[in-house]
Request: fold
Amino acid sequence: MGAQHGGRAGDAEQFAQHRLGSWLAGLEAGAYAVDADGAIVAVNGAAEALLGRSAEDLLGADAHDLLHRDSNGMGIPRTRCSMMEAFVARRTRQEELGYFERGDGTLLTMSWLATPLRLGADEVGALVVFHEHETTGPHLQDSAFSMELLPELERLALLAETTTQLTSTLDVEEALDRLVRLVVPLLADWAIVDLIRDNDEVWRAVVAHEEDGRLVRREDLEGAMPPVPAASPQPLSRALRGAGSTLATPETYQGPPDSGIAVEQRRLFEGTHMHSAVIAPIRGLREVLGALTLGRSDRPDAFTGADIPLLEDITRRAGLALDNARLYQRQRKVSETMQRHLLPQMPRVPGLEMAARYLPAPHASQVGGDWYDAFRLPDHALALVIGDVVGHDLDAAADMAQLRNILRAYAWSQKEPPSVVMSHVDEALSHISEVEMATVIFGRLERDGAGQWRLRWTNAGHPPPLLVTYDGQSRYLDDGHGILLGSHVSMPREDGTAVLPPQSTLVLYTDGLIESPGRSLDDGLERLRRNAASLAHRPLEAFTDLLMERSRPQDNDDDVALLLVRVPAEDGPEL
Reply:
C-alpha cells in the first residue's frame, strides 16, 4: 500500500501530504511522522501492516499513548520512555529492542530509530522508522532503511522548508531570522551570519543560539567586522571571498592572526564556546553576499566533511533569497528618493498649520499615483491639491508628476476660478501628457474682506473634502463636484465655496483611506468622519497620524495621500 495522509489541518498536515508521502510509501520498514505535540500526521502502508491498524486509526492519535509499551504490554510513563526522551531532546536515537501495541492488543517486538523532522518554520516533530525485531535476521541498523535514509529524508525536508521560508519574504532582516530558525537547533547550537555590504565592508549581522526553546542574540558579538583579506587561508576569509566551505575549531584561530577577521573569529569561538564549526559562503547571482557559520557547543559531536554539502545547499538557497531581498530594497530606496522629490514641502503661511502624509500601497513599490500639493499663488492665495492617478507603480508616479506640473502651471498663470483652471487641465491632458484618468480636488484658500478664511474649490471625481470644527462637528463639502479628468466628456465644471470657522481643520484625502473590499464606500466615509470629529482638539500632527492609523482599513491595498490645513483663531494674520 502507499502512504496514507490525513489528520490535523495546517502546516504539519500540508507537510505530510506534500513532502513525506512519496518517501514513506517507498519504505519497506514501517514509518510514521508526528508533529510537535506527538500526534501522528503521516503513516505508510508498512506501518499499517506491522501494527495491524489502519491509517484512520493512527492519524491524529497520540503516538506515545497509542503505541509505546514495555515488555509486559503495559503503558510507559513519558518520563521513562526512551523514544519520548529522543523526541523532547530533538536528538536522533536508535534502539534494537522496543515494543508497540498492535491493533488486536498483542505486542510487536521491534527495532526502531527516531530522528527530528522539521514540519514548518517554527515546528519540529519526529520521524520514526521501525522494523520487526528478528533475533537472527538483519537488524534495523543493517537494513536499507537505516541511518543513511533518515538524514536524506531530513535533508530534503529541510531544503524544501528553506526554499519556502526564504523566498516568501523580501525583507533582509526577516530572511536572516528565518534562516537562523531553520538551522538552530536542528543542525547546530549556534548560527552566525556575516554579510558583505557596500564598499566591501563586512557586517556580522547575526550571532544566535537557542536558550530554553527561544533564540537569543549575542549582540556583543555582532556588528562591524574588519575587511576581507586578499589572500588569507583562514576559513571565514576564504568563505567571504567565495573560495569554498571549510571546517573550523578554536585551534584554527589560536596561532598568530593574519588579519583583523582572524582576531574577531578567535573572540567568537571564545565567546560562544563552540568546539566545532562549518563555514560556507553565501553566493548571489553575481557576487558573494556573505558567509554562514554553524557551530556546536552543547552537543558533543563535531561537524565533519559530510555536513558540508547540506550547508552549501542551504546557503545556495539563502543566497538567492538575500539577492532578491537586496535588489528589492535597492529599488525601494530609489523609489523613496523619487517619491520625496515628487511630493512637495509644505509652504509656510502665517497663521495656518499644515500637515501631509503619504503611505504607499502595502504590496507595491514605494511610489504611486496619489499625491498632495500646496503652493502660494501670485495673488497670495494658497493653492491646495489632492489627487489620484490610476495605479501604484513607477508609471503611475510619472503620470502623477506630469499632472501635478500641468495643474501648477495653469493655476499659476490663469487668474481664473478653480473650475476654469480644472477645465483647462482636463483639455490639455490628452495632448501633452500620458495621463489617462485621474481624480483631483483643486482649491484656493484665502481671507475675505470680513477676515474669514474662505475655501473655493472644484472637484473632479474625487472623494469630497471633510471639514471638522473645533467643537467636534464634521461634514463633507459636497459642492463643486464634477466628472473625473480624462473622461473626454465636455461638461461645465462648478465651484464650491465654504467658510472655515476659527480653529477648524480641513481634511483632503485619497480613496485608500476609506475604501475596503468588504465594506461600502459610505461605511468608509462615515468611519473617517467620526474619527476626524473625535480628534478636533488634537494638535495637527497628532490629528494627522491618528486619523491615518484609525481610518485606513486593515485590508486596504491602495496608497494613501493626506493633506490637512487648520485655520487659526479669530485674530489670525493675513495671508
